[in-house]
Specification:
By secondary structure, this protein is an alpha/beta fold. The chain has one domain: Rossmann fold (3-Layer(aba) Sandwich). The protein contains 7 helices and 7 strands; from the N terminus they run H-E-H-E-H-E-H-H-E-H-E-H-E-E. A 7-stranded mixed beta sheet has the order 3-2-1-4-5-7-6, with helices on both faces. Helix 6 links the parallel strand 4 and strand 5. Helix 6 runs parallel beside helix 7. The longest helix is centred in the middle third of the chain and has 13 residues. It is globular and about 40 Å long. The mean pLDDT is 90.
Length: 182
């Protein structure tokens, strides 16, 4: 299903998660996302800067076309089919190896690679920032990542509901404390 451009580029997460993101994103927000799509354009229209990582060349091209069509210039997309194995520090340019206000972690597949990357990606969340993990309704498959993140002691909310396309989805949102405990 090609959903790119549908529903005014609404991210392919449940509606409650979209509402949450609308409340926390500002024109000064720095956003990182794994996996590109509607969310890339949607974030680009709302945030100061968006850094996205994509593993599929065809999807990378489609998203870049939509960015150009919408005159969005504040998005940097990295294409690397093995970014989940290499690590972000091997993929991102030095200026993008920063901490972000919001990270949407919705890639890569298989899900097991998402789990490994979730453990690395937390260091890129700013104090007070958010890590949004999509598709956490697949409890058994995501359990190692969720257990790891839950053990960090970050504030967590879980939002369940339908996405614009009608499917039931769940997202877990973690907020990094302003000050980390020793």
């Amino acid at each position: 299903m090609n959903y790119l451009g549908s529903f005014d580029y609404c991210p392919k997460v449940n509606k409650k998660t979209v509402t949450f993101l609308e409340k926390v994103i500002t024109k000064e927000s720095l956003i990182l996302e794994t996996g590109t799509g509607n969310s890339t354009i949607w974030f680009g229209l709302r945030a100061k800067r968006v850094v996205s990582i994509e593993s599929k060349r065809s999807w990378y091209r489609k998203v870049r076309q939509h960015l150009a069509r919408n005159d969005i210039e504040n998005v940097q997309i990295y294409l690397d089919s093995e970014y989940d194995f290499k690590g972000l520090d091997k993929i991102l340019n030095k200026e993008d190896l920063i901490q972000y206000d919001i990270i949407l972690h919705d890639g890569p597949t298989p899900l097991e690679r998402r789990i490994a990357l979730a453990k690395e990606i937390i260091k890129y969340v700013k104090p007070g920032g958010y890590l949004v993990i999509d598709d956490t309704g697949e409890k058994k498959r995501y359990k190692p990542a969720i257990d790891y993140l839950d053990d960090l002691g970050w504030e967590k909310i879980t939002l369940r509901g339908k996405e614009e396309w009608g499917a039931m989805k769940e997202s877990s949102i973690y907020r990094r404390p302003e000050e980390m405990r020793e």
